[in-house]
Amino acid sequence: MCTGRCSHCVGVTLLPLAVISIICNIILFFPGWDTKYVKDGHITEEVKYMGGLIGGGLMVLVPAIHIRLTGAHGCCANRCGMFLSIAFAAVGVAGALYSFSVAVLGLQNGPLCKVAVIWTTPFKDKEDSYLNDRNWWKTCWEPKNVVEFNVGLFSTLVVTSGLQLVLCAIQMVNGLFGCLCGTCSHKGRLQTIRK
Questions:
Q1: Nearest-angstrom CA–CA distance, 157 and 172
Q2: Most exposed of 44, 93, 103, 187 (fewest Cβ within 10 Å)?
Q3: How does residue 142 score in pLDDT terms, banded at 50, 70 and 90?
């Protein structure tokens, strides 16, 4: 596969991953599918860091568009475009790492929830992980099913940001080869014209 096609594939794959990250982060602001927790400030701290919105979302979305265009025929499908794709992919790596770190912290610390009469993060700084024992999940009274809500969405962010990290790293290597060797996007046509 030539470097131009590889860039196109990487860019097309990064686009839905960035959108998934943005959607997951936005949904995390509404535990129990209710807006009252945002209004009252009862949101898990890691959600406020917006790892999925900024890191895995915008910091990957912009490079994904450029990387996709780098692989398109007639649009940046040259050595300069491939060189720029290395820089854009590096931004994507940074964004994916940020999203991954925030999501792992969100899973490790657990959600902010109401326990008896106080709002706290009951699973934070515990020796045993709440992820291994579902009986602990009943500790959170409100919002309803907040542990499942956070675990599902933060797990999705871990997977998507991990994929984004791998794809952006692949594009950095691909961009280097494309910068040094060219994109090979028009080689077949040139040989036909010369004959």
A1: 22
A2: 187
A3: confident
